[in-house]
Write a structure and sequence with these properties.
heterotrimer, B: about 100 residues, alpha+beta, Histone, subunit A, two-stranded antiparallel sheet, 3 helices, flat, C: about 500 residues, alpha/beta, Amidase signature (AS) enzymes, 11-stranded mixed β-sheet, 11 strands, about 15% strand, ATP-binding (chain C)
């Protein structure tokens, strides 16, 4: 059965638990480095290894980052929070427990505004966010029948952001994830690199008949690590669960994994034993107290956030909701756009070029905005010349291509070198028009004989000829107007 | 609250302690007597009493976000039961 | 030399009467001769000790020796000592050469103290008789049929037998004070948080505290001066100025208000012990103190509360012993689960397993509120009893244990053994300091029938200086602390 039909009958309910690695220099409870890519276990210190007798001490920066996230989603920041131990055995969990927060998390209820592809916005409520330590990694390459354990990642600070089950489609889930990604990267509290695992997502998904209030049984899809996979995994899960339900079956509450290669989810092979994590207050850590002065100080450090920027872009700058959404998706992109705008002064022109020509080339070459060969100042300079009619659109594309290929320092330099300056002198344009009319008597006759509604199209031919004669430097609207005047005079 | 064979086996599994049936029987007996003693807690009226996790009313100190720990892998792995290529080895982990 | 106090030895070293090397060599020789019968040491580190002694001697020659330089001591084998086996009395750590040193070990080493080795103990500090050691039981120097008490039984026996003038112990429910009482020495459990726990293998983190065990209160003060203070590696260590514990030792006790808790003189208290304790109190009255009857109404609930909280914390603290990164690993594990289960079953002894099982059970789903939460509520009431009492009195006095040292094997039943700690355990739950000082010898007339009695003195949080003062003044007026057991070679 297809997904569309399923959606007619079933309402999809989705909640996300997103783990964000905080970009501290050292670990949450130890002074070991968190840098990515070190040789195995070279960044696992005594505390990370859980050697007998070691103790945790909380990283102040991890706390500050968590609080700034809370402020960014307008959340309650409780004065008092505690750490608990979540007990279970796994080789990548050195102490046999994960230090986490349960009874009193650092961040309370908040909300995140999401923008859907059609430009509409919605609010997803956040249940809470808590700090915890990351585990190490099990490497399954064969070491004579053994697995290898690398504990470099153990103790990396995580902020786990738990949403309410407020999302109703894969699209919404993906938009939510993008919104979180934007927030954490704007705040600079995470690099948001999903491929390196800096942001990982567990999806809770259930179906219920439309109109029903109680939630259906949910499946949890663990560790989905890209925006696209989240959409794919949810799409698969909706289909799987709706088929099950329609065949009169039931959804089993279980943990599943998404396999991008087969594009499906499958139940994890671990034995289905009821987990009993035996949470209890960590006796090695004391209650964390955050007073108002501290919270206000963190607030003063907040940058302009994506939703604030979006509202400014649609309001003050007059951009469409869609454009504002695209441009604010990441802080570097938004800042690039703002620098372009600052130079050229035309927000819509800047928005069109950043989203259009620039993004297309970046995507084509697989580059990030921060790696763009054309700086925001260069693009702004180019757009200034377009805006003040120094060059026309066609020339602008040529200048852009040259800037991209490092064939010039600035748009002005390229315009001068290539003689792309637009001809706006009406005398010059008039001469060109006269010559084209004189050189094409047959087309002039056709024009004169054509009905009025056809003439509009036929004038294009003459415009083309004039542009060609000017090597593209004539100002097209000016040419158009001049030709119309002259040809109409011949009627 | 009484403790039964199954409770002991369950706790042993959660704690990853290998127990055979004879061990378990002995622990059922010991643990029952201990819990019987512990059950006297129920006699205390604790209505409205906040649980006490730490004996002092202190709060968590914070550490500056600085890398202070050097790489000591070789020292740490000298006392490890099994390593290769800097990794700790365990019987194959299946997901 | 072997029966002098630290203070006397310090004077001998300072006056050039002997060198640290001579002193150390003499004690090492004595250990070699006497300890095989006592089994108070797990590891004797003779070579390192002689080297450290020589360093102290040369520092002294250069005029750079501190007050404690060159003085010998021993560590309970629960303190990590870099490069030296640290077993915690367990088969699990029989092969564990600590790769780092505990903060207190570092501090004392920097003060120039010379470690003779690591003392025997109940496995992971779980026990009150030292019969739970993988390395076999320790004999009481007063009579080899008797236990030395536990869990710091090795430290107590070694000090009492003249093998070392002082040793460190740890006290989670009485593990310094009860063996000090059984062996006739002075043992101080400081306020929770006064001494760093970093590098001390954790039993129950919210109760564990390290302290000195020596031949006098004056010696305990000397050691505490060097041990106490905030440790940036231990979040639960208190940042509060450390007084000079030696300064007020001689302060007169005029007007001292001594509280005698009714509950500490009730059923189960050995008549001889009670008599000795009451006589000690009379000595205090003769020194100007006033006795006030007080009540600690929740005393009877301390053991039940403790046997929920301590095993719960222990069950989690001991999860790191999993055969992966250090410690015992079973032969040829067939699977991960087999590795865990067999390594832990082989590595841990009976009492440790019992407490892990109890702790795991009481923390599990469905039992948490009735056990753990309830015990923590009762813990608050127990602490409040002490706070209320200290509104009325300066110190509390009573027996350290209900009986004198009992025979090896006499308490096969775990619950009977637990009741040993009836007078000491509430102190850990409340986090207050306590000291046990020799206050009599009971039993027959023959020297091997003598059994020491310990007087326990309790004070409010951070009242160590006063406790040491109260203990010291008594030791100036009596000679119980100078009585030595009839150890071979004594005459």
């Amino acid at each position: 059965m297809n997904q569309g039909a399923a959606n007619m009958q079933w309402e999809v309910v989705i909640g996300l638990e997103v783990h964000v690695q905080l970009s501290t220099r050292s670990k949450i409870f130890s002074g070991a480095s968190t840098a990515f890519g070190a040789e195995p276990n070279r960044q696992a210190c005594a505390v990370d290894l859980g050697l007998p007798g070691v103790l945790p001490v909380l990283n102040e920066n991890a706390v500050a980052m968590a609080v700034r996230f809370g402020l960014a989603i307008d959340a309650e920041i409780p004065e008092y929070s505690t750490f608990e131990r979540k007990n279970y055995f796994y080789p990548d969990l050195p102490k046999g427990y994960q230090t986490s927060q349960m009874a009193h998390p650092i961040i309370g209820r908040g909300e995140v505004e999401i923008t859907l592809p059609d430009g509409t916005t919605r609010t997803v409520r956040i249940h809470h966010a808590h700090m915890e330590e990351d585990a190490g990694k099990s490497l399954h390459e064969d070491y004579s029948g053994m697995s290898g354990i690398d504990l470099n990642r153990a103790g990396t600070p995580l902020l786990e952001i738990v949403s309410e089950p407020d999302m109703r489609s894969a699209e919404e889930a993906s938009a939510y994830l993008r919104a979180l990604h934007a927030i954490v990267t704007y705040l600079g509290i995470s690099d948001g690199n999903m491929a390196e695992g800096s942001m990982r997502c567990d999806v809770n998904i259930s179906l219920r008949p439309r109109g029903q209030q109680t939630l259906g049984t949910r499946a949890e899809i663990k560790n989905v690590n890209s925006f696209r996979f989240v959409e794919r995994a949810i799409a698969f899960e909706i289909e799987r669960q709706s088929e099950l339900l329609e065949d009169g079956g039931i959804v089993v509450q279980e943990t599943r994994l998404y396999d991008p290669d087969s594009d499906e989810t499958r139940a994890m092979r671990t034995k289905e034993e009821a987990n009993d994590y035996r949470y209890f207050p960590c006796p090695d850590l004391l209650p964390l107290m955050l007073d108002e002065a501290y919270v206000e100080h963190q607030r003063s450090l907040l940058p302009e956030l994506p939703s604030e920027k979006r509202h400014r872009f649609t309001g003050e700058l007059g951009l469409s909701a869609y454009d504002a959404g695209v441009l604010t998706a990441s802080r570097p992109l938004a800042e690039y756009f703002e620098r372009v705008h600052a130079v050229c002064g035309d927000a819509k022109l800047a928005a069109n070029w950043v989203q259009g020509d620039l993004m297309a080339r970046l995507n084509q070459d697989g580059l990030d905005i921060s790696e763009s060969p054309v700086s925001a100042e260069q693009l702004g300079g180019l757009l200034s010349r377009l805006a003040d009619d120094t060059i026309n659109g066609k020339a602008a594309k040529q200048v852009f291509a040259d800037l991209w290929a490092y064939k010039g320092e600035s748009a002005d330099e390229i315009i001068a070198a290539r003689g792309l300056k637009q001809v706006t002198d009406s005398g010059e344009i008039e001469a060109l028009c006269d010559r084209v009319i004189a050189d094409n008597p047959a087309q002039v006759t056709q024009y004169r004989e054509a009905s009025e509604d056809k003439r509009g199209k036929m004038i294009g031919f003459f415009v083309g000829q004039v542009m060609k004669a000017s090597r593209g430097t004539a100002n097209p609207p000016q040419v158009n107007a001049m030709l119309k005047e002259k040809l109409d005079a011949l009627l | 609250m009484a403790i039964e064979h199954a409770d002991v086996m369950r706790a042993a599994h959660l704690a990853r302690l290998g127990l055979d049936d004879n061990d378990a029987e002995r622990y059922v007996e010991d643990l029952s007597r201990i819990l019987e003693m512990v059950d006297r807690l129920a006699e205390v009226d604790t209505e409205g009493v906040t649980p006490l996790s730490h004996p002092l009313d202190a709060t968590q100190p914070l550490r500056a976000d600085e890398v202070t720990e050097a790489d000591r892998r070789d020292t740490f792995q000298r006392i490890a039961p099994a390593t290769a290529d800097g990794l700790y080895l365990v019987p194959r982990v299946v997901e | 030399m072997h029966d002098r106090t630290l203070a006397e030895l310090a004077r001998g070293l300072a006056g050039g009467e002997f060198t640290s090397r001579e002193l150390t060599a003499a004690l090492l020789e004595r250990i070699e001769r006497i300890d095989p019968a006592l089994n108070s040491f797990i590891s004797v580190t003779g070579e390192q000790a002689l080297n450290a002694a020589e360093r102290a001697d040369s520092a002294r020659q250069q005029g750079k020796a501190g007050a404690l330089a060159g003085l010998p001591l021993a560590y309970k084998d629960i303190f990590c000592t870099e490069g030296v086996r640290t077993s915690a009395g367990s088969r699990m750590l029989d092969n564990f050469i600590a790769p780092y040193s505990a903060t207190v070990v570092d501090k004392l080493e920097r003060a120039g103290l010379v470690s003779l080795g690591k003392t025997n103990m109940d496995e992971f500090a779980m026990g009150s008789s030292n019969e739970n050691s993988w390395y076999g039981p320790v004999k009481n120097p007063w009579n080899s049929e008797l236990v030395p008490g536990g869990s710091s039984g090795g430290s107590a026996a070694a000090v009492a037998a003249g093998l070392v003038p002082a040793a460190l112990g740890t006290d989670t429910g009485g593990s310094i004070r009860q063996p000090a009482a059984f062996c006739g020495i002075t043992g101080l459990k400081p306020t929770y948080g006064r001494v760093s726990r970093y590098g001390m293998i954790a039993y129950a983190s919210s109760l564990d505290q390290a302290g000195p065990m020596a031949r006098s209160a004056e010696d305990c003060a000397l050691l505490l001066n060097a041990m106490a203070g905030h440790d940036p590696r231990d979040s639960t260590s208190v940042s509060r100025a450390v007084p000079d514990y030696s300064r007020e030792l001689d302060k007169p006790l005029d007007g001292l208000r001594i509280g005698l808790p009714a509950e500490y003189f009730g059923e189960g208290l050995d008549a001889d012990v009670e008599k000795a304790v009451r006589e000690a109190v009379k000595v205090y009255e003769s020194l100007g103190a006033r006795v006030i009857d007080v009540s600690l109404p929740h005393t009877g609930m301390a053991i039940p509360a403790y046997y929920v909280i301590a095993p719960a914390e222990a069950s989690s603290n001991l999860s790191r012993f999993d055969g992966v990164r250090f410690g015992h690993r079973c032969d040829d594990p067939a699977s991960l689960e087999d590795l865990y289960k067999r390594s832990r079953a082989e590595g841990f002894g009976e009492e440790v397993k019992r407490r892990i099982l109890i702790g795991t059970h009481t923390l599990s789903e469905g039992f948490f509120d009735a056990y753990y939460r309830k015990a923590q509520q009762v813990r608050r009431l127990i602490r409040q009893d002490f706070l209320d009492a200290f509104d009325k009195v300066d110190v509390l006095m009573g027996p350290a244990a209900p009986t004198t040292a009992f025979k090896l094997g006499a308490k096969a039943d775990p619950v009977q053994m637990y009741l040993q700690d009836i007078y000491t355990i509430a102190v850990n739950l409340a986090g207050i300091p306590g000291i046990s000082i020799p206050a009599g010898l009971v039993g027959g007339n023959h020297p091997t029938d003598h059994r020491p009695v310990g007087l326990q003195i309790l004070g409010p949080h951070f009242g160590e200086a006063h406790l040491l003062n109260v203990a010291h003044v008594y030791q100036q007026a009596t000679d119980w602390h100078q009585r030595r057991p009839p150890v071979e070679g004594q005459a």
